[in-house]
Each structure stands twice: as structure tokens, then as C-alpha cells.
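Design job #97: recover the sequence.
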């Protein structure tokens, strides 16, 4: 889980706990624990599926909870008027009625904060990915992975000329099938002599290449591996591999 998804996950847990805690007393004691358990279980399932749908899930379920809470308080109010509430519930109702407005205001602020956080999160991640992709394109966009490796590696270095470039190994960086457009390549570059300051003429390296819609680009190392790849997949910026 990346840091952004971790924050959203914690906010979702806190929000669900607060919301289920403002049900009417009788209903809360009987059902709120079960409701909270189901919500947290579903939140874990959404997170396990990749976490991209967490903000929408939290917003939808919070909206449904607020409606349910208002409905149960309405039922309790009418039950009190009809004289079917026990004395304990009547006392609790009088105490909680004074606090209900303040609590609902606080809940509303939390919901609005989460709603505002969703476009901010996606906007920042999209901008971050676009910046790195633009930097990668400056080094060249190539029709195939092989062209990208050869073009970026076959460069003279400190007085030595490139004799050949070998691709020793190339495969998707995530063999389990995630991000199939992100490839990791191990290559060797052979020079006609030792470059100035070095005692060998063969250089081996390990680098990553991303398949964009426009072609293949070399991607420099990232703070969080695969982060840009996940953003590309989410916003449909990846190319289709044959």
C-alpha cells in the first residue's frame, strides 16, 4: 500500500467508527458492531483489490450510513412520541438530542474533507506521473523495446567507441501479471577499449522501460517502484504489448 492509500484507509476506518457511534442507543447496542464489522471487512477487500476504488467506496458507504442514522433517529423519535420507549431510552434520547446537531456538523465536515481529498489525490498523482513521463520522452520515444535499449546504450563513452550492445535478459518487472507495460532489462555494452578512468571495456546494467501509447521510453529510478506505472494504468496512458 502506498502512503496515499494508507492515509485514505485510516480515514475510512475512523469515519466508519464515528458514524456507527451516533446511531440511537438501542439500535447501536444491537447492530452497530455488526455494521462496523461488515464495513471494515469490505474496506479490506477493496484495498486488497488495488485500493483505487477506496475513496469512492468510503464516500458511498458514508452517505448510506448518514441516511441510515437519520432514519433510525426518526424512528426513535416517533417511538418516543407513541410511548413505546422505555425510561432508559427516553433519558438517553434527551441527553443525545442536545449533542446530535453538533455531531452531525462534525460528521459533515469530515465527509466534505474526504470528498475534497479525492480530486486532490488524483490530481497530484496524475501531475507527478506526467512530469516524469515528459522527462523520459526527452531522451527519446522508440517503436520497440529493443530499439530503446540499443539507442540509449550505444553511445561512445570517455574516448571509447561502442562495439555492440547485448540484451541479456528482458521481462515484465512484475511477473505475476501486474503492470505488463513496465519492463526491466539487463544489458551489456562492449567498447573497443577501456574508457578513460576505467580498467574494463564491458559495462553491465539494469534499467526499466515503460511502454506508452506513443512508444517505449527509458524511465529513471523512482522513489516508489511501480508508482508511475500504476498511475499510467489508472489513467489509460499505457501502450498495448503484442
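Job complete. Output follows.
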Amino acid at each position: 500500500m502506498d502512503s496515499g492509500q494508507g492515509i485514505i484507509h485510516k480515514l475510512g476506518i475512523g469515519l466508519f467508527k464515528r458514524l456507527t457511534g451516533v446511531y440511537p442507543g438501542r439500535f447501536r447496542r444491537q447492530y452497530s458492531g455488526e455494521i462496523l464489522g461488515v464495513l471494515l471487512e469490505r474496506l479490506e477487500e477493496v484495498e486488497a483489490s488495488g485500493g483505487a476504488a477506496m475513496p469512492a467506496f468510503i464516500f458511498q458507504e458514508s452517505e448510506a450510513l448518514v441516511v441510515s442514522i437519520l432514519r433510525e433517529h426518526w424512528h426513535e423519535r416517533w417511538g418516543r412520541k407513541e410511548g413505546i420507549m422505555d425510561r432508559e431510552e427516553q433519558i438517553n434520547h434527551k441527553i443525545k438530542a442536545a449533542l446530535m446537531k453538533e455531531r452531525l456538523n462534525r460528521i459533515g465536515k469530515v465527509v466534505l474533507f474526504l470528498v475534497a481529498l479525492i480530486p486532490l489525490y488524483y490530481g497530484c498523482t496524475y501531475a507527478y506521473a506526467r512530469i516524469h513521463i515528459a522527462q523520459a520522452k526527452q531522451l527519446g520515444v522508440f517503436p520497440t523495446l529493443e530499439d530503446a535499449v540499443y539507442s540509449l546504450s550505444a553511445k561512445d563513452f570517455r574516448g571509447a567507441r561502442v562495439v555492440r550492445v547485448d540484451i541479456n535478459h528482458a521481462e515484465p518487472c512484475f511477473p505475476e501479471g501486474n503492470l505488463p507495460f513496465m519492463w526491466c532489462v539487463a544489458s551489456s555494452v562492449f567498447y573497443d577499449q577501456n574508457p578513460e578512468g576505467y580498467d574494463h571495456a564491458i559495462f553491465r546494467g539494469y534499467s526499466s522501460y515503460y511502454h506508452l501509447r506513443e512508444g517505449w521510453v527509458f524511465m529513471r529510478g523512482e522513489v516508489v517502484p511501480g508508482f508511475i506505472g500504476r498511475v499510467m494504468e489508472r489513467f489509460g496512458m499505457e501502450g498495448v504489448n503484442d
